[in-house]
Design goal:
about 30% helix, globular, 2 helices
Length: about 110
């Protein structure tokens, strides 16, 4: 039950959304037990993001939320992969991207909870 929320300061075309969606679908498997089958995504583009006091350069905040825990050993690979996706597809430099992880032991789906 992973959820990836992307807030980016640039506009996204439907083609870019599709490309990022496909790449994130593959990347989520870096986290053991997670797959595209259960992945939910949200894209919020054209956000007013100010990073280091600057709102004119492209920036992104990517939140990755999962049911359960994420092994520490996966975090560097996941962060590198996510930053590469957004740099390649949206031209947002890696040093203008924050990736936030959130683990939850409480998650509901289909009228009940895990």
């Amino acid at each position: 039950m992973p959820f990836i929320n992307s807030r980016v300061s640039v506009p996204m075309t439907e083609q870019q959304k599709e490309s990022v969606k496909q790449k994130l679908g593959k990347a989520i498997s870096i986290i053991p037990g997670k797959s595209e089958q259960w992945l939910m995504l949200e894209f919020a583009d054209n956000c007013d993001l100010y990073f280091q006091g600057n709102g004119t350069l492209p920036s992104a905040l990517i939140e990755i939320k999962v049911f359960g825990s994420i092994p520490q050993s996966c975090l560097n690979e996941m962060t590198e992969t996510v930053c590469e996706i957004y740099e390649t597809d949206l031209q947002i430099k890696k040093d203008r991207i924050y990736v936030k992880y959130e683990e939850s032991s409480k998650w509901g789906w289909n009228g009940s909870n895990f």
